[in-house]
């Protein structure tokens, strides 16, 4: 075997970077390496569909840490390598080019790959996903020749990309197969608010539509054909329809899982000395009534990375963090705490027309999540409502003059 490390981290995103950082913070002195399939050092991914895409932030500003940081902490960066095989008995991985790397403990932080269109033309020039720096760079390079873009998918990635394109003066058509945007992650009041905001900024939001194929001139996209036969002209198509968790090498090696790789409360997989964290980790979550979920967020990746690192270093740790998320669109800052999945009632706090309000989600009378738009105070003070699943009179919650802090005491 050419090389071996005490800790091998597969994935150079937020989770992989935080795992290495947390190991050193826990005074782990063994050898550490991060294997990444991109050539770049670990960087922040959320700006790819926002500040980096719009040109507001240079790439150097979204690096998680500069090169010197990793050198000082003796973390080897094995970049531009894709792991395709895991040998749990031999405690080694194999890369796409046949290189074998040994490990004492393996932390799998590979995230996922964008779900692609399965229709004709789905891989044409001008059809993009937003997952890597290279993805964003390709879109930026093509923007000058784009008059109209079509965004497929009304989730956060699609909405953020639509906002950047609209601010850049492009005509934008956003297509969502369901009857509202953000349908999988938010209640109807929030969905309708964001639909109205995007329309007010010139985005043509179309709901309940299905894509038949991508039309091309032979190589490059020229339009999007819908199932009803209507064709929308486009020089660029951005696809934001979710990710496929990158766990096949672990599943092939015998790890339990399916939609992600299953982990326990210490982030251990069913394979010996193998941990998994971040977007690809399927775990029973307290805030989802202990149902198995995957959370695609920086917070989740960082929290699970810290738990895995501490466990390896012999420090007691258990994953039980309250989930939180954010999204920036135009001058709107959305902050979410908790998981609204399974809610049976919503409470709108404040007036959406003021562009500063919150949506509270309850289940059987107990608060399980908040979506806060330009309402940071609600977000900060509402965290306790979610953590303690408090039951409070909806009329009091709806009164925006009544601080949530007072209701939580």
Automatic annotation (TrEMBL):
Coiled coil (residue ranges): none
Keyword Oxidoreductase: yes
One Pfam family of this chain: Pyr_redox_2
Domain Reductase C-terminal: 324-407
Cofactor needs: FAD
Tree of life domain: Bacteria
Any GO CC annotation of this UniProt entry: cytoplasm
InterPro entries: FAD-oxidoreductase/Apoptosis (IPR050446), FAD/NAD-bd_sf (IPR036188), FAD/NAD-binding_dom (IPR023753), FAD/NAD-linked_Rdtase_dimer_sf (IPR016156), Reductase_C (IPR028202)
SUPFAM superfamilies linked to this entry: FAD/NAD(P)-binding domain, FAD/NAD-linked reductases, dimerisation (C-terminal) domain
Keywords in alphabetical order: FAD, Flavoprotein, Oxidoreductase
All residue ranges annotated as the FAD/NAD(P)-binding domain in the record: 5-305
GO MF terms, alphabetically ordered: oxidoreductase activity, acting on NAD(P)H
Protein name: NAD(P)/FAD-dependent oxidoreductase
């Amino acid at each position: 075997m050419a090389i071996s490390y005490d800790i091998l981290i597969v994935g150079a995103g937020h989770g992989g970077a935080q795992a290495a950082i947390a190991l050193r913070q826990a005074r782990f002195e063994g050898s550490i390496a991060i294997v990444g399939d991109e050539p770049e050092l670990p960087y922040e991914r959320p700006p790819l569909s926002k500040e980096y895409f719009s040109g507001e932030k240079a790439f150097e500003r979204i690096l998680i840490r500069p090169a010197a940081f990793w050198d000082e902490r003796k973390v080897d960066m094995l970049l531009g390598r894709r792991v395709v095989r895991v040998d749990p008995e031999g405690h080694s991985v194999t890369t796409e080019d046949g290189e074998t790397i040994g490990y004492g403990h393996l932390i799998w932080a590979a995230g996922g790959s964008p779900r692609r269109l399965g229709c004709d033309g789905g891989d044409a020039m001008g059809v993009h996903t937003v997952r890597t720096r290279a993805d964003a760079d390709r879109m930026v390079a093509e923007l000058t020749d784009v008059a109209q873009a079509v965004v497929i998918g009304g989730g956060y990635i699609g909405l953020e990309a639509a906002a950047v394109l609209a601010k850049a003066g492009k005509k934008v058509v956003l297509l969502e197969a369901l009857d509202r945007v953000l349908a999988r992650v938010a209640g109807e009041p929030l969905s309708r608010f964001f639909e109205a905001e995007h329309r007010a900024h010139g985005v043509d939001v179309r709901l309940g539509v299905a894509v038949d194929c991508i039309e091309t001139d032979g190589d490059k996209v020229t339009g999007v054909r819908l199932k009803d036969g209507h064709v929308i002209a486009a020089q660029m198509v951005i696809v934001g329809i979710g990710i496929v968790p990158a766990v096949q090498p672990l599943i092939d090696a015998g790890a339990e899982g399916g939609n992600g790789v299953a982990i326990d409360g210490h982030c251990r997989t069913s394979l010996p000395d193998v941990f998994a964290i971040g977007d690809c980790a399927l775990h029973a979550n307290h805030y989802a009534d202990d149902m198995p979920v995957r959370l695609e967020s920086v917070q989740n990746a960082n929290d699970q990375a810290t738990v895995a690192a501490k466990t390896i270093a012999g420090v007691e740790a258990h994953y039980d963090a309250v989930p939180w998320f954010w999204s920036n669109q135009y001058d709107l800052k959305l902050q979410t705490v908790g998981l609204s999945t399974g809610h049976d009632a919503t409470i709108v706090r404040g007036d959406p027309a003021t562009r500063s309000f919150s949506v509270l989600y309850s289940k059987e009378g107990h608060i399980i999540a908040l979506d806060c738009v330009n309402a940071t105070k609600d977000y900060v003070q509402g965290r306790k409502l979610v953590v303690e699943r408090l039951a409070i009179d909806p009329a009091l919650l709806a009164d925006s003059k009544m601080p949530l802090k007072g209701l939580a005491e």
